[in-house]
């Protein structure tokens, strides 16, 4: 802790005293193989998918998972966009790492779980309707489930996907 100076000095200069306690040490970063989770809650706002992409990119890069960023970013963007476009309430994205698998879940207030349609059902130049096809092609695993109103929260659904790192040594963490 620093105290205000007792002698006149520059207004933005603070001095330390011998009786000041040592600051606590910074925590050590988690090992690459340690599990972790992050959640981002967002309102029904068209800016939310972009914020989810930026957040996901920052988290994965900081944890040394840069090789998963592009696929995870695209798939998360698809799911977050669907949540904003097709529901009226808030949503959240949850990132969960359990070495070597990243699971991304997107929850929203709509209880309607979408179904995968076959490629011919979506016109070639359609601007919508390919989100689950992209999910099916790029995710290692994916699924979804509806939840009813109950003691654990409001009704809604969760759509999730998993991306696995190929076997090998863990990548170096970003500084």
- The biggest beta sheet, please? 5 strands, antiparallel
Distance between the termini: 27 Å
Order of strands in the sheet with most strands? 1-2-3-5-4
What is Rg? Answer: 22 Å
Helix content, binned percent: 25-40%
Shape: globular
Give me the strand/helix succession: EHHEEHEE
Structural class, by secondary structure, is alpha+beta
Topology:
Elements: E1 36-42, H1 48-62, H2 66-86, E2 91-98, E3 101-108, H3 131-138, E4 141-147, E5 156-164
Antiparallel strand pairs: 1-2, 2-3, 3-5, 4-5
Helix pairs in contact: 1-2, 2-3
Describe the protein's architecture and organization:
- A hairpin with a 2-residue loop joins β2 and β3 (101-108).
- It contains three helices and five strands; from the N terminus they run βααββαββ.
- The relative contact order is 0.17.
- Strands 1-2-3-5-4 form a five-stranded antiparallel beta sheet, covered by helices on one side.
- The protein has helices spanning 48-62, 66-86, 131-138; strands at 36-42, 91-98, 101-108, 141-147, 156-164.
- α1 runs antiparallel to α2 (66-86).
- The model has no long low-confidence stretch (mean pLDDT 84).
- With 175 residues, it is of the alpha+beta class.
């Amino acid at each position: 802790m620093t105290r205000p100076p007792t002698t006149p000095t520059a207004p933005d200069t603070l001095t330390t005293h011998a009786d000041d306690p040592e600051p606590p040490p910074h925590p050590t970063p988690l090992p690459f193989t340690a599990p972790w989770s992050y959640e981002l809650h967002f309102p029904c706002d068209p800016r939310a998918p972009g914020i989810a992409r930026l957040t996901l990119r920052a988290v994965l890069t900081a944890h040394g998972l840069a090789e998963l960023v592009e696929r995870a970013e695209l798939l998360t963007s698809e799911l977050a966009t669907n949540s904003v476009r097709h529901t009226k309430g808030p949503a959240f994205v949850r990132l969960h790492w359990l070495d070597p698998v990243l699971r991304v879940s997107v929850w929203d207030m709509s209880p309607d779980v979408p179904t995968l349609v076959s490629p011919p059902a979506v016109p070639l130049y359609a601007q919508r309707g390919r989100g689950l096809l992209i999910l099916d092609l790029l995710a290692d695993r994916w699924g979804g489930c509806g939840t009813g109103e109950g003691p654990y929260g409001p009704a809604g659904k969760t759509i999730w996907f998993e991306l696995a790192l190929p076997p090998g040594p863990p990548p170096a963490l970003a500084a």
